[in-house]
């Protein structure tokens, strides 16, 4: 196989660093292992962020997500770890990572974590009629 999983998140310069805008990414086939049973856990990972100077390159994000396939982790730890790794790579103005985990033991779990740069404030929301 020419492509392998990787923990490296590649970046590129934000083409519009003077403007706040949101990038929404959806990873519907995320897989890791249950730390108790070793069985696969499945989730949809949603990533919403307002970039600052850098953005995440999509192929590297795909390979990064693939790197969890053989790792065990609780839903909370995995979701928080994804947020931490992306913040370390791109230092966004704002980011929210949501893990929508498939049923385990009859329970669906959603884990939502956020990071906001201390000096960043979103623009007021505009409501159009």
UniProtKB/TrEMBL annotation:
<feature type="active site" description="Thioimide intermediate">
    <location>
        <position position="34"/>
    </location>
</feature>
<protein>
    <recommendedName>
        <fullName>NADPH-dependent 7-cyano-7-deazaguanine reductase</fullName>
        <ecNumber>1.7.1.13</ecNumber>
    </recommendedName>
</protein>
<comment type="pathway">
    <text>tRNA modification; tRNA-queuosine biosynthesis.</text>
</comment>
<feature type="active site" description="Proton donor">
    <location>
        <position position="41"/>
    </location>
</feature>
<dbReference type="GO" id="GO:0033739">
    <property type="term" value="F:preQ1 synthase activity"/>
</dbReference>
<keyword id="KW-0521">NADP</keyword>
<dbReference type="GO" id="GO:0005737">
    <property type="term" value="C:cytoplasm"/>
</dbReference>
<feature type="binding site">
    <location>
        <begin position="56"/>
        <end position="58"/>
    </location>
    <ligand>
        <name>substrate</name>
    </ligand>
</feature>
<dbReference type="InterPro" id="IPR050084">
    <property type="entry name" value="NADPH_dep_7-cyano-7-deazaG_red"/>
</dbReference>
<feature type="binding site">
    <location>
        <begin position="75"/>
        <end position="76"/>
    </location>
    <ligand>
        <name>substrate</name>
    </ligand>
</feature>
<dbReference type="Pfam" id="PF14489">
    <property type="entry name" value="QueF"/>
</dbReference>
<comment type="similarity">
    <text>Belongs to the GTP cyclohydrolase I family. QueF type 1 subfamily.</text>
</comment>
<dbReference type="InterPro" id="IPR016856">
    <property type="entry name" value="QueF_type1"/>
</dbReference>
<dbReference type="InterPro" id="IPR029500">
    <property type="entry name" value="QueF"/>
</dbReference>
<dbReference type="GO" id="GO:0008616">
    <property type="term" value="P:tRNA queuosine(34) biosynthetic process"/>
</dbReference>
<keyword id="KW-0963">Cytoplasm</keyword>
<dbReference type="InterPro" id="IPR043133">
    <property type="entry name" value="GTP-CH-I_C/QueF"/>
</dbReference>
<keyword id="KW-0560">Oxidoreductase</keyword>
<keyword id="KW-0671">Queuosine biosynthesis</keyword>
<comment type="function">
    <text>Catalyzes the NADPH-dependent reduction of 7-cyano-7-deazaguanine (preQ0) to 7-aminomethyl-7-deazaguanine (preQ1).</text>
</comment>
């Amino acid at each position: 196989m020419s492509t392998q999983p990787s923990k490296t998140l590649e970046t590129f310069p934000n083409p519009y660093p003077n403007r706040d805008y949101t990038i929404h990414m959806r990873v519907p086939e995320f897989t890791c292992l249950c730390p108790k049973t070793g069985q696969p856990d499945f989730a949809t990972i949603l990533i919403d962020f307002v970039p600052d100077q850098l953005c995440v390159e999509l192929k590297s994000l795909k390979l990064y997500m693939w790197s969890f396939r053989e790792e065990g982790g609780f839903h909370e730890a995995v979701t928080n770890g994804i947020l931490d790794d992306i913040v370390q790579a791109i230092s966004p103005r704002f980011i929210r990572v949501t893990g929508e985990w498939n049923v385990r033991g009859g329970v669906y779990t959603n884990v939502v974590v956020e990071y906001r740069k201390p000096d960043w404030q979103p623009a007021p929301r505009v409501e159009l009629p």
